[in-house]
Specification:
It comes from Actinoplanes derwentensis. The protein is of the alpha/beta class. It has helices at residues 8-11, 24-32, 103-106, 148-163, 181-192, 209-215, 221-230, 235-242, 247-252, 271-280, 305-320, and strands spanning 40-46, 53-61, 67-75, 82-88, 110-114, 169-179, 198-202, 258-263, 291-296. It has one domain: Rossmann fold. It contains eleven helices and nine strands. A nine-stranded mixed β-sheet has the order 1-2-3-5-4-6-7-8-9, sandwiched between helices. β8 (258-263), α10 (271-280) and β9 form a beta-alpha-beta unit.
Length: 321
């Protein structure tokens, strides 16, 4: 795919005005203030056939107290509390199998990989968490209170709380990480949880959403286009709902240092939408957090792939090592 978005010099200065609801903070405060359930519902050891990595099947309370599954992994035979990385998966993925995502635990971190409620049927090795109301980018899209991402983002916030109660995890040193949808979830958590240590965001989804829908027909954004092509009279309600979930708004409120990665030929999450989040990151804070960005001019949604993973490991080691 050839470059199709703004040139890099314009992207670096791209700070768009993204419409934010007046009650954005009130909406999220009330959502997260729902009657609390115990953070952890169940923790069971799992045989993963890996000599140097221990694993547990975790169930924690997500949105509405509903059970959300996750894998928790730790380096074996290490007793002291370790800094934790809470990871969120991409659109259509679930938590998969316990031996799949080993980068963070291999680097010496405690690692919690959250399952995506209602997802897991498109990529990888599946998921284990149903969503009673159904999943997908258009599910419940006519009301922010019914929207799927209200539930999923709340799950992500609750995953951080759960990670702080897991055996062998240091509750004072928690990072969040994700790619694509996972990057969007990491941004949302960064804006809603004030005491994270670090944030790692790659090719973030759900940022500057209206521009993304205008720029690409690729899924998942293309699902919004398809929906509106049928429901021609529902545009105002759809855009109002999505305004409560735009990663640019969460990015503005973030407090933790952040590391981003963006491919300039990304036709899934267009680069200008990721730059919008990056350039707004932390601006609403009196002491703006530090941020850094890896740009991959000739890559698409895969951005830096293993090169980027190496950059993330080095960056995070400086903050959690």
């Amino acid at each position: 795919m050839a470059a199709f978005d703004l040139p890099l010099d314009q992207l670096e200065r791209y700070v768009p005005v993204v419409g934010e609801p007046d009650d954005f903070d009130t909406f999220w405060k009330s959502t997260l203030a729902a009657p609390p359930a115990p953070a952890l519902l169940d923790v069971q050891p799992v045989e993963n056939d890996l000599r140097w990595i221990d694993c547990w099947d975790v169930t924690f309370a997500g949105f509405g107290g509903q059970p959300i599954r996750a894998w928790y992994s730790r380096p074996a035979e290490i007793d002291e509390p370790l800094p934790a990385v809470v990871e969120f998966a991409g659109y259509g993925r679930g938590r998969g199998l316990p031996h799949e995502r080993l980068t963070w635990v291999s680097a010496g971190y405690a690692h919690l990989l959250m399952d995506n409620r209602g997802q897991g049927d498109r990529y990888g090795c599946g998921g284990d968490t149903p969503d009673p109301a159904g999943a997908g980018i258009t599910r419940g899209i006519l009301s922010p209170y019914d929207y799927y991402y209200r539930r999923l983002i709340t799950d992500a916030v609750r995953a951080v709380a759960a990670s702080r109660t897991l055996p062998g995890a240091d509750p004072a040193r928690v990072a969040v990480a994700g790619n694509s949808q996972g990057g969007g979830l990491a941004l949302a958590v960064a804006g809603l949880v004030p005491d994270l240590t670090a944030v790692l965001v790659s090719a973030p989804f759900l940022c500057h959403i209206r521009r993304a829908v205008d720029l690409t027909d690729n899924a998942p954004y293309g699902e919004i286009t398809d929906y509106l092509s049928v429901h021609r009279d529902q545009g105002p309600a759809v855009w109002t709902t999505l305004s409560y979930f735009d990663g640019v708004h969460f990015a503005r409120r973030a407090t933790a240092p952040a590391h981003f990665g963006i491919g300039l030929r990304d036709t899934v999450c267009p680069p200008s939408t990721g730059f919008a989040a990056y350039n707004h990151y932390g601006v609403s804070r009196l002491a703006r957090p530090s941020r850094s960005l890896e740009v991959y001019p000739f890559n698409g949604h895969e951005h830096g792939d293993a090169f980027h993973s190496r950059a993330q490991l080095r960056w995070l080691a400086e903050r959690l090592g």
